[in-house]
Amino acid sequence: MMRLIFLPLWLLHWLPLQALWILGRLLGRMAFALARERRQVTLTNLALCFPQWSPEQRHKIALRHFQGFVTSALSLGIAWFASESRLRRMVQYTGLEHVRAAQQHGPVILLTPHFFGVDTIGPFLTLDFDVITINSRQKNPALEALIRSRRLRWGKGLIFARQDSLRGVLKALKPGWLLYYLPDQDFGPKDSLFVDFFGVKAATVPALARMARLAKAQVVPCVVHQNFAQGRFDVSFYPPWEEFPSGNDEVDTLRMNHFIEARILEQPAHYLWSHKRFKTRPPGESSVYELRP
Question: Is there a cis peptide before residue 245, judged by omega within 30 degrees of 0?
Fold first, then answer.
């Protein structure tokens, strides 16, 4: 019975990405109208980060965000069921030389912000690299096992649960291996620093700098864009960060946020605005996500 959950994704994976984009735009518009709370979260995030934009501009980006989000969900089956040859035709690398060069010096951490397509590219990277990923564990053991089997479908790579200690991740992060790391979510006040994200204090885990220091790893930014019009996934690798970590967690975490901000400005609708990025507030500040009537 549990396997039937995957049936729609299996059926949809036969469609080209352009067709999924047409369907995603339609369903995304419906979701934008019906998902009141998530719509409010998205608009609140955009208002906090882009107060200089007009309400009409933010509404337009929010709608496009929902359409991209739904398309990304519909295309997840491509990562889980498409053949290797089809995936290779759909994924275009830029800056691959930066990863190869960094691998020569030890472990590599791929700093990967939450743009649409990251769930597809994570498993795909295991075709070419030894990759470690960190995912949230599903409450249903059967569902967890099925998802895990799809993410490890090529028989390579390691998956750790976000709920576990990072000690196991660091132990497994050997020279030449990549850690596919998505750091830009609000995981609560524990171990977080309040640093600026578009000028708003955001609870941010400073684990990137700490892991880089402990594993003696280089940080290579990795940005994924789901190119709906061209029917492909664009994966851009940037040069390894120099003088990182600096020894100051707050400075390093702010550097990470500034990098993510710059990439968001390039593709603002494709970032995960529907996540409650500012859920955890500094002491004394009230929630920013009060649902309006």
Answer: yes
Neighbours of 238 (CB within 10 A): 18
Q: Residue 288, SS3?
A: coil
Cα(255)–Cα(92) distance, integer angstroms = 27
Domain housing 83 = 2-270
What's the CATH code of the domain at 134? 3.40.1130
Q: What's the structural domain count of the chain?
A: 1
Pull the structure tokens for residue 254: 């702010």
Least Cα distance to 75 among 16, 149, 35 occurs for 16
**Model confidence at 1, in pLDDT bands (50, 70, 90)?**
low
293 — pLDDT class (breaks 50, 70, 90): very low
* CA 22/CA 14 separation, integer angstroms: 15
- Cα torsion for 139, 8, 118, 287, to the nearest 10°? -50
- DSSP letter string, 45-56: HHHHH-TTS-HH
Residue 240 belongs to a domain:
yes
Under 8 Å between Cβ of 197 and 204:
yes
Sole residue written with tokens 């995936």: 87
Residue 95 Rama label (left phi>0; alpha psi -120 to 50; beta): left
Token digits for 169? 């991740």
Residue 115 lies in a domain: yes
For tokens 């020279």, name the residue: 175
Residue identified by tokens 């990072």 is 166
**Per residue in 4-61, pLDDT tens?**
778 899 999 999 999 999 999 999 999 999 999 999 999 999 999 999 999 999 999 9
Is this prediction's pTM over 0.90?
A: yes
Burial of 183 (0-12, 13-18, 19+ CB in 10 A): buried
- Confidence category of residue 245, pLDDT binned at 50, 70, 90: very high
178-181 sheet: strands from edge to edge: 91-94, 232-237, 218-227, 108-111, 178-181, 131-135, 158-161
